[in-house]
Design goal:
Elements: H1 8-20, H2 32-71, H3 76-85, H4 92-101, H5 103-115
Helix pairs in contact: 1-2, 2-4, 3-5
Length: about 120
């Protein structure tokens, strides 16, 4: 079987990989094989961490809501339960934002949830 030369196509794909690994350290931005390994790993980390970012944001929101709820004399779990009982449909992102930016409104929400 005759040999097929890659030439232009191979060079184009190699340049694409090397462009993606531009900021890498050592030979990872110079040598194609090392760059390809680094790129594959980087893309996997990016994929994984997009999911982890959502988890971490939820943890942050819960920590902020818990801190603000305890300032109002109620634990996080009891506060969330009271919100559900009172049919107050605010998600954790919004609650955390209110807790950080407007303590008076958050206190009113806590009172409304506890009264119901």
């Amino acid at each position: 079987m005759s040999r097929t030369k890659g030439g232009y196509v191979t060079r184009r794909s190699h340049k694409k990989v090397l462009k993606l690994t531009k900021g890498q350290r050592g030979s990872k931005h110079l040598l194609f094989r090392r760059a390809n390994e680094a790129m594959m790993k980087s893309l996997w980390y990016a994929y994984r961490d997009r999911r982890q970012r959502r988890r971490q944001l939820r943890q942050l929101w819960i920590a902020r809501i818990n801190a603000a709820a305890r300032l109002n004399g109620v634990k996080y779990s009891r506060f969330i339960h009271a919100l559900k009982q009172a049919n107050i449909a605010l998600d954790r992102k919004i609650l955390a934002d209110i807790a950080v930016r407007d303590a008076a409104t958050f206190s009113a929400i806590v009172r409304a949830a506890q009264s119901a």
